[in-house]
Write the structure tokens for this entry.
Amino acid sequence: MVDFPPSVRHRGATPRPLENATGVRLRRAGDLAKRLLSNPTTVFGLILIAVMLLIAIFAPWITDPNTPDPYQMPRDWGAVRMPPGTPGHILGTTNEGGDVFYGIIWGSRTSLQLSIFVVGSTVVIGTIIGSLAGIMGGWVDEVLMRIVDVFLSIPELIFALAIAAVLGPSFTNIIIALAMVIWVKYARIMRAQVIQVKQNEYVDAARVMGDSKLNIYLRDILPNAITPVTVQATLDMGNVVLIGATLSFIGLSEAGIAEWGVLVSEGQAGIASGRWWASTFPGLMIFLWALAFNLVGDGLRDALDPRTEGR
Amino acid sequence: MQLRDYILRRLMILPVLILGVSIVVFTLTRVGGSPVGIYLSHEMTPAEVAQIEARYGLDKPLPVQYVNWLGGIFSGDFGWSGVSAAPVADVFPLKLAATMELAVSAGIVAVFLGVTLGTYAGARRNRLPDHITRIVAVSGASLPLFWLGILLLIVFWANLGIAPIGRSDAVIWDSIAHPTGLYTIDAIIALSPTALWDAIWHLILPAVTLGYGATAIIARMMRSSLVEELQQDYVDAARAKGLAEKLVLKRHARRNALVPTVTVIGLTFGFLLQGTITAEIIFRWPGLGRWMADSVLRGDQATLMTYVLFTSVLFLFVNLIVDVVYAHLDRRVTLGD
Amino acid sequence: MLDAPRNAPVAEVNNLKVYFQAKRGRVHAVDGVSFEIRNGETLGLVGETGCGKSVTGRAFLRLLPVPPGILAGGNVTFRGADGESHDLLTLSDAKIRAIRGDRIAMIFQDPGKALNPTMTVGQQVSEVFLQHRSKELLERAGLASASGPIQRHARQSERIFDGLLLKLPGYRRHRQKLQSALNAMVCEALAATQVPNPAKLIDRYPHELSGGMRQRVMIAQALACNPDLLIADEPTTALDVTVEARILELISELQTARGTSVLYISHDLSLVRRICDRTAVMYAGRIVEIGPSGDIFRDPRHPYTRGLLAAIPTQAAPRGGLAAIKGSVPELIDPPEACRFAGRCPFATDACHAHDPELASVVGEHSVACFIHYPPPSGTRPSFDRETA
């Protein structure tokens, strides 16, 4: 069969000047940023995240706690059950005189701590275990993956609830429980990625050239396998706050802590008497937090996957 | 590989996974200390405590305790529920019926709505149905279920006063027999429209709360897989045969887009199961989820263990069914790892 | 049936323009293409990937992704065996559907992708009969005067409750009769493509068949209603060379037997030379040369065609002149008024960059769009003698 010569078939036949690895990576990062910012919903998510972070960072300047432990809701017993718009309590107060606005502001700090700690630790643990399984193969892989399978058999929230229940009601225990549940996801993603990347020719080339295993892993495998982990981690920054707030709502945090799920739960008692504000505002914050990271995570996935372009 | 062999192999792995889950559950509850706490009072002496521990075999080594617990489960003894002051095995079926009625109705609505929304959105990209679906999909994944429930209660219960709370009206409940424990089915069996209406009326808000997120997940998957299918050559080939656009969409593209959606519907089941916990708390629904939450807060371990074990087994079976259905729908799937 | 004179065109494309909206402007994928397909002939449409040949072929069935595809102008006139002529681009949806699959059919490049993976071969081929031959089908089943639901079932236009009705015992028997008549028709169509054991093939899924078998199913489906025109979009590209030969033979046999005209779209020059009566060469959305295949391959007149032919391996130069054409295809976003090939043409002069050459007859039916063969409105006229490469 006769085909057109290569010069005819391919457009832009002039070869690009050779670039070093750093150059390629920089150019790719630039492309990625451009694609991310061309999607309006992603930009909206990024702005939302920025606002949330600013609130969390500047919480002490926005509302001064005046108490030894700022993460405990200060109580104003002279102003219980005040509606929004009350002087000194813009968003109203709870049954116990907690200021809803204060809870929202400091709740962003609690949520940020939760998401950073849970996602940070599980990404590290999951990546290490997944990489070990993927690289070593054999019985190591077999044992690790069967453990992962068992963990994945128990629905996420129910598993976290059970662990938190056993550890006792406290916000710290919620964080630990979530970390114990979430890591398996990353282990599984990472293992699949490592196995896939391992089969690439450049990895073989590095092996032939006598690079050490650790070097090959750090330089050739890890950077190429980590992409789906970053997408999942972005999505999870929002999801873990959602699950954490659910556990708090059920009652697995200390009472009185400035955490959105706890506030929604405390406000629930008042809705029968028309006090809608104490649940509504903190819940809105949980929603916005999760929404922001979901939007950015989706945008990131689309930007990394050229197939979805133009959808 | 044949479909039959695949199912057999999956069925063989299942007991191993269930055994693994049971070990995890058992280990977990023992980490928190002796489960004897629920039986104790302040006046008991250490000797009396030891006596109670001995009575329940809690002085034996952990592996022996595990085997005893597992043996108990096989003989139908799931332990004692302190919250309900009754054996777990007695209370469980009643609570399960309540939860299933809620979860299944939410699931049916979610599948129907999700597939419909996703189809419209995928077939009419960037038009109104697509935008609505996008809003539902994005918000559904981020909306805290318990907050949505509370918002609905604020509007429909506290302010408008049209929605009820709980599972049924006590007077109406007393008026008919309850052979299945599923109130809608019971009402149909009793041929009582009042009872049926009452059951559905109580079901609507919790089902909407629970089903919203699931709808979002399904609609989103359906939309993206339909968009993908519509770009395939066989769709143009179907058009080239002269088929009407409706038929191209219904018989060709939508059918194939449903294949990956089935997988997501399976995942949604786990989502619904988890969601019942908060939905039941908010709407005072007397199901497994609320029972579990109460038990957790009071350190009632027998209930906790049973619940986790049960939901995991259910979850595993649903996943197995989904995989088999998927393999059946998509002939191209090579069954294997 | 009216017997049209052998040389009357079955279809005429006139100044067809198809654009695609891209972010940076409009891509002129097909930009003023005109040609005719004569009764019973095989017209080859050759060109490289992205030159607009597939888009042109699909225009006959109006299969363009509408947006972002824009029908920017021109018309495609189709004159079927019934003697009526239609402008395919402005026809109502119902009318174009009546033509699709019945009067004009299409074979796709990759039969693995063009067959629905979740439907059996029988289901897919029978769709054509249900769509266009429901009357004949009902007669063959002895159900010509059957009641509404059966009639609608045979036309695949069931109403909401028909599905339930058809499950009733009385209808069920009728439906079975209909199904066996349908199966007989499908078997005949499959048998025409020389597949072994067509009755067995009906219940198979596409993935269970070889590439050649799949393409035979596609052909059976396309020729089921004896179309006047067959659009074959690279039907053998995805196949092995040995299978390719047999498929080509099959198409040409069926074509001769039924008097079908064929538009054969391909990037494979030697193949087109072998099977096509006439050949049109496309470059960057334009036809640059068209004429009887013999003339074009013996005496190519456009520099692009010459370059292409020079690239074909011959006995004298087994690897062909691989550097035959320098440069690459221009971007087709809002192209300037100039010869599209000027940037790569070794003979180009200032005139070629300032004016757009039109197709003009050189010898008889052999037409070329190049200023070498007629004087440009202004500037230096290029010539094969002044080779500057």
About this structure: Residues 291 and 364 of chain C are 9 Å apart (CA to CA).
